[in-house]
Amino acid sequence: MSGPVKPPRRFVARPRGVEAWVSAGEGERTTSPSRSANTARLTIDVTPELRKRLKLAALQRGLTLADLVRAMLAEAFPAEDQERAP
Questions:
Q1: Which residues fall in a coiled-coil region (predicted)?
Q2: Sign of the CA dihedral 48, 51, 56, 57?
């Protein structure tokens, strides 16, 4: 007993006006100035307690969580370490 076959769902409907759709993406960028075009995403798992402490530390310093973690990583792994590596 199978029911009627449903057509597959689509993720996004096609835009009605291609020109309007393309120009809609030309607004102000909201990315952080510390991010450049040459970035890579890094995903780590932390406990909820550590995440809370990191967010609080970032807030107290007036930074975003991402900027705080970038600064911590840059301090822990300075660029001159790469030059000394064999």
A1: none
A2: positive
